[in-house]
């Protein structure tokens, strides 16, 4: 079966809204979240309460305490598997084909999987394509002989994500989980009140019928 890939315009920056990285204090996975129009990011570790912000604006982009040099030094040290603001190693990374397979988040993984699975990659025209991820992927990821091991690596990263999602639901690590839990309690309370009101109304009607 022929599987086609034609998305040569999507850029890496389009996956930067949420990036899984390793907390510099406890070395556990934490999300780097964009706070505005791709200018400022923030990390707030649910495990050790560490917080930090970073800005893309050149005048505000300051060195992080864990940098040995500058951002490019960290980039080379981790073979490119670092986030674009904090210079922290990405959590979603695994050795693959003698190199490192990495992704920012699940949406990024989906894009890579679609590219790797494709048996026909059609680059239509050249306008804007020089910024696309598909053009900038390293050669080892474009080789057909590496398709199976790369897909296995992507699956390994998916399993890591599934485990952390299950943990979040289990212990309420992130605020979103707490909000869902609180909403569930409110809905349950409302349901109990409604049921009690219905039972009271029914009892009153039965009593009225008996009296008459």
Structure in words:
42% of the residues lie in helices and 16% in strands. With 212 residues, it is α+β, with helices and mostly antiparallel strands. The chain has a four-stranded antiparallel β-sheet with strand order 2-3-4-5, with no helix packed on it. It has a two-stranded parallel sheet with strand order 1-8. Strands 6-7 form a two-stranded antiparallel sheet. α2 runs antiparallel to α5. The termini are far apart. About 9% of the residues have low confidence.
What keyword list fits this structure?
two-stranded parallel sheet, four-stranded antiparallel sheet, single chain, alpha+beta, 212 residues, globular
Characterize this entry briefly.
The chain is α+β, with helices and mostly antiparallel strands. The protein is built from six helices and eight strands, in the order βββββαββαβαααα.
**Overall mean confidence score, pLDDT:** 78
Helix content class: 40-55%
The termini sit apart by 77 Å
Shape by Cα distribution? globular
Uncertain spans, ≥5 residues at pLDDT below 50?
175-193
Widest beta sheet: strand line-up: 2-3-4-5
Strand coverage percent: 15-25%
Query: Helix count, per DSSP?
Result: 6
Oligomer: single chain
Order of helices and strands: EEEEEHEEHEHHHH
Query: What is the makeup of the main sheet?
Result: 4 strands, antiparallel
What's the alpha carbon Rg, rounded to whole Å? 25 Å
Count all strands and give the number: 8
Structural class: alpha+beta
């Amino acid at each position: 079966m022929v599987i086609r890939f034609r998305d040569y315009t999507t850029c890496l920056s389009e996956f930067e809204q949420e990036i899984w990285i390793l907390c510099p204090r406890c070395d556990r996975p934490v999300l780097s979240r964009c706070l505005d129009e791709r200018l400022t990011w923030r990390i707030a570790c649910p495990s050790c309460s560490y917080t930090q912000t970073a800005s893309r604006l050149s005048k505000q982009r300051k060195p992080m305490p864990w940098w040995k040099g500058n951002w490019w030094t960290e980039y080379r040290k981790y073979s490119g598997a670092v986030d674009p603001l904090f210079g922290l190693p990405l959590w979603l990374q695994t050795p693959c084909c003698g190199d490192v397979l990495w992704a920012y988040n699940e949406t990024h993984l989906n894009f890579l999987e679609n590219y790797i699975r494709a048996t026909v990659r059609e680059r239509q025209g050249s306008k804007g394509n020089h910024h696309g991820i598909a053009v900038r992927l390293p050669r080892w990821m474009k080789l057909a002989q590496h398709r199976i091991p790369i897909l296995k690596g992507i699956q390994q990263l998916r399993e890591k994500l599934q485990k952390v999602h299950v943990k979040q639901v289990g212990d309420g690590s992130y605020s979103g989980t707490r909000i869902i839990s609180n909403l569930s309690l409110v809905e349950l309370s409302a349901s109990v009140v409604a049921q009690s009101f219905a039972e009271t109304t029914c009892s009153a009607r039965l009593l009225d019928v008996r009296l008459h």
